[in-house]
Fold this protein.
Amino acid sequence: KNYPAAINAYNEALRMRVSIKPESQDVAIILSDIADVETESGDYLSAEKNYSHALQIWKKFKDKEGVAGEISGLANLALEQKHWDKAEKLARKSYKVSRKIGDLKFFAGNCILLAQAILNQGYPTKALRYARRGVDIFTYLHHNALEEANEILTKCILAIEAENKNKLRKNKKK
């Protein structure tokens, strides 16, 4: 994982595209790709800047899928930074837009993203419905993200079981 080389290559592609047309869909795609690599490398400030710039471009084109994709990227970035509340708000936005778009894979990914954000705030029962929906869709699609989705579903179930055990213990002490 040579992040600096990848970022340099993307930046070169970005320079070329910007010289042709500064705010094009190609520019938004490259900005998003750069932000993905920056997120992976831990450069969260730059990633947020690039996702946000790409988001503004997609909004100008009124491209719902592009908008949802960048919001999803920002939600994932918030998860990486453990900003659970912010991640949930962004994931809910992307979830709603992706639901309207009709792309099942994208919608399932947003279900899992939203489940993670809610689960990390300590609400496994609320997260469970989104995790189940994501797993169901990824199962239907035979998608390779199913394993990760199942991990989130399992975490929800285990957290609910732990909550229930704690409730039982408290009730026995009374």
User: Anything to note?
Assistant: The mean pLDDT is 96. The helical segments are 3-20, 25-41, 44-60, 64-80, 84-101, 104-119, 124-141, 146-173. The longest helix spans residues 146-173. The CA atoms of residues 13 and 19 lie 10 Å apart.
